[in-house]
Amino acid sequence: MAPKGCCGSPASTPPSAADRAVTLPSPPSGLTAPPFSVVTFNLRNGLSYDGCHSWPRRRAAAVATLRRLDADIVGLQECYGFQLRHLQRRAPGYRSVGAGRRGGGRGERCPLLARTERFELIDDHTMWYGDEPDRPTRLPEASAPRIATVARYRDRHNGRLLRVACTHLDEHHAANRARSATQLADRLCGDEATVVLGDLNTGSEPAVFDALAAVGLRPVAKPGSQHTVHGYRPGQTGAHLDHILVSPGLHVGEVAVDDTLHGRQRFVDRLRADRYASDHWPVRAVLRWPTATAHHDHAGS
User: Fold this and answer.
1) Domain count, the chain
2) Helix, coil or strand: residue 84
3) Torsion sign, CA atoms 254, 217, 230, 98
4) Which CATH number characterizes residue 80's domain?
5) I need a labelling partner for 104 at 20 to 30 A (CA). Which of 33, 35, 119, 260 fits?
6) What is the pLDDT of residues 47-62, one digit of tens each?
């Protein structure tokens, strides 16, 4: 019989070095902190040739988006190292973590960026979906390895711990998405306050959201209720692929899809095109810790 994970499902991963880290003491319950904001944003990989929307022509818009959203924690998908370095040079104040999906700094990343003034990094690790989660591997028939970056932070305002995961699930196979969600849920089970940021490549597949709900993670917006993909087409109302999920210990405030354009750009003589930061819109949510007197905390209350 296969060994069981901490949530009762078959164990999908051996404990990593991060999972074996010493548990930190809980902070005094009376401390309070202002709300904090989180963002998930599929940046569109910088090696794709998208004509007038290729990375060199939209990187200024990407920087402007990061600055305007002014989030405390950002989860990016399809982000190469050169894209991450460009953003961090022009939007300082963040510390990033996350390996490339082909190992080390190679390949697309799902990096987490945390504002150092607000959150102190405790530990982090990258996990691969598949039979060998601590090394580059891929799921059956997957076009590329798929990963999640998981980090723990301490809120400098109240000392509370926050676990955050950033991920990008398989674009073609529902079975791979379901398996990945189950594997991620096994890694995230427990009673720590948790946020998941990601392009799940689905709007509402029950197998994905049920696996995450089994460990208490609920989306901040009803799956399928938002349009987060536009494909650089004005007025396009595409699928709801980009999601934020939170554990019951976090209260959800404002949730918004940021559909801001950044003016017009000249391209090939007289042709002009809208200036997009990516082919996805970022999603932002404002979260707050429960009050010290709260006895029953529910996400979204």
Assistant:
1) 1
2) helix
3) positive
4) 3.60.10.10
5) 119
6) 999 999 999 999 999 9
